[in-house]
Every structure is written in structure tokens, then in C-alpha cells.
């Protein structure tokens, strides 16, 4: 059970619904998904913050010296070190 309350996808309206649709379409990750990742749900009460995080993710995972796979490996390793299931 999550400790952070969030707005479910079916209850999202306005900007939040648009952001959730973009997340499902893979706008930030490049990978379409059936549902919005839980980590994004945790920011659902602040769509302005969620939009900024999604913009930062788009930049973080694009181009540069590291491949997408390398970015993901680093993120996974850091999450494991922090004992974070995300």
C-alpha cells in the first residue's frame, strides 16, 4: 500500500490528465506504457511539479555521452543502493 496519497488515472482532470496521457504515450521515456508509473503518481497533487519533472526526465534520458540503457542502469543501481523500489 502506498504511503503517499495520489490521484488515480481515472480521476485525473485537466493538466494532470494530459500529463498522465503523455506518460502513457512514452513522451518522457520513449516507451509507451499501459499505465502511469507509480513514481509519477506520487506527484499527482502538483501537476506543475509533475510537468517539470517530466521535462527534466526528457532531457536527462536524451542524447549525451551515455546511452539510454546506461542511464537506466545507473538509475536502477542508485535505487537499489537507496533500497527504493522505483
Describe the structure.
The chain has 86 residues and is mostly helical. It has one domain (9-81). It is 51% helix and 0% strand. The chain contains 4 helices and no strands. The longest helix is centred in the middle third of the chain and has 14 residues, at 47-60. It is globular, with a radius of gyration of 13 Å. The two termini are 14 Å apart. The mean pLDDT is 88.
For the residues shown, what is the average pLDDT? 88
Round the Cα radius of gyration to an integer and report it: 13 Å
**Major β-sheet profile:** none
Annotation field: number of helices: 4
Low-confidence stretches: none
* Helix/strand/pairing category: mainly alpha
Query: What is the total tally of β strands?
Result: 0
Relative helix content: 40-55%
- β-sheet strand percentage: under 5%
What general outline do the C-alpha atoms trace?
globular
Domains counted in the coordinates: how many? 1
SSE order: HHHH
- Give the CA-CA distance, first to last residue: 14 Å
